Amino acid sequence: AGAPGRRVFFALWPDDALRREILARAPGRAEHGGRPVPAANLHLTLVFVGRADAARIRCLDTAARRVVFSPFSFQLRGLGSFPGPGILWLGEAEPEAPLAALAGQLSEILAKDCNHRPETRPYRPHVTLARRVRRPPPPTPVAPLTWRVRRFCLVESVDTHDGPRYRPLAGYPAQG
Ligand code: 2AM
Q1: Domain 6-173 has what CATH class?
Q2: How far apart are the CA of 9 and the centre of ligand 1, in A?
Q3: What is the pTM of this model?
């Protein structure tokens, strides 16, 4: 609160069917002891941006329209965790290459056009299922879930009395 602008990031935004498939693979709260991400918030981040004012959001939007990619598919094949921040995720994207290429291309264009500072850590595609997890699971395979990617989104994070709510602001389609 206080800082101007909105908190935004670029993500793959699941449709309702995919959302249900993600939920079907999420362990229950009792198993991990953390706070489940609300179903409507489930997503896969491509590029995190952070606070942006209106002019910057216009820049991000214009830049994202320059991304050129073909529709592709990948599978999410496993549960895992980032034990430090206590994040339980669905990930193990296979193949990872087209996803990493999309995130990389977007990040590069944002750097060039909007002075975005690229992430220095390696890209780890994941859907966060729960936070503040007390019992992080060991890496566990799940029934593979296929994600067909035809667009990506610019998403806003809005604070509410029960935590952040994510809301897509704009979509960017694949070509062909
Ligand atoms: P996470 O789920 O692993 O926390 C919105 O915050 C989305 O951007 C989340 O999916 C979050 O990943 C991701 N993200 C990536 N880098 C971030 C950062 N530096 N700060 C906050 N969220 C970040």
Answers
A1: alpha beta
A2: 8
A3: 0.95
